[in-house]
Design a protein that fits this description.
Shape: rod-shaped
Number of helices: 1
Number of strands: 0
Strand content: under 5%
Length: 84
Amino acid sequence: MTPDDFKRLETKVDKIAEALVTLARIDERQFAASKELGVVWQRLEAAERGLAAEKARLDMWIQRGVGAWAVISGAFAIALKLVH
């Protein structure tokens, strides 16, 4: 091989080395982003569980309110009948 061939080969090896370094950096960024995304998903799931619990409590209070209004309405209707 001539010195020119070695120079071209060295240039190509240098370019491949740069490409590998770039790929390694991309892989590191993707790994970090994946970890962050996992944390975000965990927080989202926790928030959804909390929201579901709050919705269940709200529904319970709404049902209690409906029941209370039914009792009050019944008592009021009975009171009106007793008065008239």
